[in-house]
TrEMBL record:
Its EC number is 1.14.13.168. Gene3D superfamilies: FAD/NAD(P)-binding domain. Pfam families: Pyr_redox_3 (PF13738). InterPro entries: Auxin_biosynth/cation_transpt, FAD/NAD-bd_sf, Flavin_mOase. Keywords: Oxidoreductase. Belongs to the FMO family. The keyword Transmembrane does not apply. This is indole-3-pyruvate monooxygenase. It comes from Eragrostis curvula. One of its GO terms (molecular function) is indole-3-pyruvate monooxygenase activity.
Amino acid sequence: LTWPIIPLILHLLQLQRTHKFLWFYIFSRATKISMEKVPVFIVGAGPSGLAAAACLTQVSIPYVIVEREDCSASLWRKRTYDRLKLHLPKEFCELPHMPYPSDTPTYIPKDLFVRYVDAYTEHFKICPKYMTSVQSAEHDEVSSCWIIMAHDQVTGLVTEYTARFLVVATGENSEGNIPQIAGIHDFTGDVIHSSSYKSWNNWEGKRVLVVGSGNSGMEIAYDLASHGVDTSIVIRSPFHVMTSGLIRLGMQLSKWNIPVKFVDFILVTLAYMWFGNLSKHGISRPNMGPLFLKARTGRSAVIDIGTVDLIKKNIIKVLGPVCCIKGSAVEFEDGKRDHFDSLVFATGYKSTANIWLKDGESMLNDKGMPKRDFPNHWKGENGIYCVGLAMRGLAGISYDAKMVAGDIKSIIDSMASF
């Protein structure tokens, strides 16, 4: 009985091999693969990647820069609210090797910053490969190079890049972070991240809860409430409230090498004189001073644009941490309960570098952020670098880009000397 079965098994095995070959053939035809070798590969064409490209151009080092979106600085163009301005004065927000025009306002609005980025890209002749996503990047010990697989989302072409140096410039704000709150998926109204918020126009007549009280949360709450939208805000942890003038004073004093603790003492004292005791309005102050806290944790002070006054007048209602959500009702940890039409989560962003980066553990932790503190955070092993991950804004980006380009230049020069 076994003999008739054997030819059948062999026939089935032959069909399986044929099918495997057929699928491999189809896959290889559908997925067109090319190969390219470059000295430096930059991932991301936001301000970080553009700054790295410009600094490499200054020292005559070729590079390739890819961007998964269809434009540079996509966060600024697509995922910021209309009223946004840079929170720091322009002298602290320049990209390397190109100052702002003399007639630029001190605090630069979003649209003007985007125009600056476009002029920067043109000035340094930066040509990102848009709509190109990095699928993987891993270090090859034999060749001492990074092997990067990049997918062109338009043509379907996959290119295997071999690069001696890899620059991670995808930023700390790669993807919006919405916390997992019990019942959030059953909420009956709108749930968005602050990156999708544009202006108050879309929220007229609704009861809105803004979750998060950083600069974005406080500005969105102000934008809503100042136009008559019924607005509440969740404040979960202490933070400093400053004016833009106070922050500018603090940064100028720091440039004169005045000790940070003394500068912080001045800022906190002046802020108390300006705003009064905010603890009775639900806003408590951290133990660390604003500049020291920023340097230690990356958490920025909130620069008030009028939100505090609306909170004091109870036009914006302050609520504590959220416990759970049931339908349209939001329950809070202190036992309060209220109904809302919409939730806006201004709860920050997260890095996505670890999704595609396979051998970056010498530089990045499990959250895709630098393991080492500033100013030693920007370099890992085997020719890997990061720009714009130190949570120090545009000034930090400029510092990183200059350090990375300088280090790559010194390595290439030392290799050429042998």
